[in-house]
Amino acid sequence: MNDTTPRGAFQTVRRRLLLAACAVIVTATAPAPALADLVGVLPRVKPSIVAVGTFQRTRSPAFQFRGTGFVVGDGRLIVTNAHVLPDAVATDKMEALVIAVPGADESAMARPVVRIAADRERDLAVLRLEGGPALPALTLARDERVQEGQEIAFTGFPIGAVLGLTPVTHRGIISAVTPIGIPQGKARDLNPALVRRLANDVFRVYQLDATAYPGNSGSPMFDPRTGEVIGVLNMVFVKSTKENVLSDPSGISYAIPVEYVNRLLAGAR
């Protein structure tokens, strides 16, 4: 029996319908492009990005930018890099540690914060917002490590002191999950900080196929599909340990895994 018979024609139509149904199912279940996801996610991410610095009314400029931070938890906790924070604040000269909220009116732009926790070994710090309304918070991912090749995005203030406090977003991938303490070929290449890390606490960081800039330190690295934070950008601590090329940066960027943020927050509460 061939396809010119009524039965053959019916089977042909049936096959075509099954193929069309399969195509619809595949199309419906295929993941949406990350770029399209990022367009929808960014309006939820950007309100949680803040600039970290110090404020002193009598100097010019009154606000001195030091790095990026992002809001988590109840809207009063800010995560950033420990090296972003000053060693001391001149409170006797009315200097204060603050965050600047982009887009806020002038009276609410600089808001005081206090340091409540720090992990110097992983260059992380947590600040608490003093007074005023809470800010929109980002969601932290669970502690599972991300996969090499996974797409990421991060938002912060690259060269913020020059380009201004407009949140800027970059995209890339996780190019490697690599140890922060790398054994040196010669004894003279070792330094006390590296020796401590090699002996006590070697941990892995994310190497990114994306370019970050001074000012991006403390930026949240997030999943562009969901907006969940999976790491914290680092532009000084990791690069000085792994590359020692701060005077001639390589363009490689790094991030601290979110699991260390979760641990620090758990101990701070």
UniProtKB/TrEMBL annotation:
Listed GO biological process terms: proteolysis
Enumerate the transmembrane spans: none
Q: Which GO molecular function annotation, any one, does this entry have?
A: peptidase activity
Q: Which domain of life is it from?
A: Bacteria
Residues of the signal sequence?
A: 1-36
Q: Please name the Pfam families in this protein's record.
A: Trypsin_2
Q: What keywords are assigned to this protein?
A: Hydrolase, Protease, Signal
InterPro entries with a match to the protein in the record: Peptidase_S1_PA, Peptidase_S1_PA_chymotrypsin, TAT_signal
Q: Report the protein name in the record.
A: Serine protease
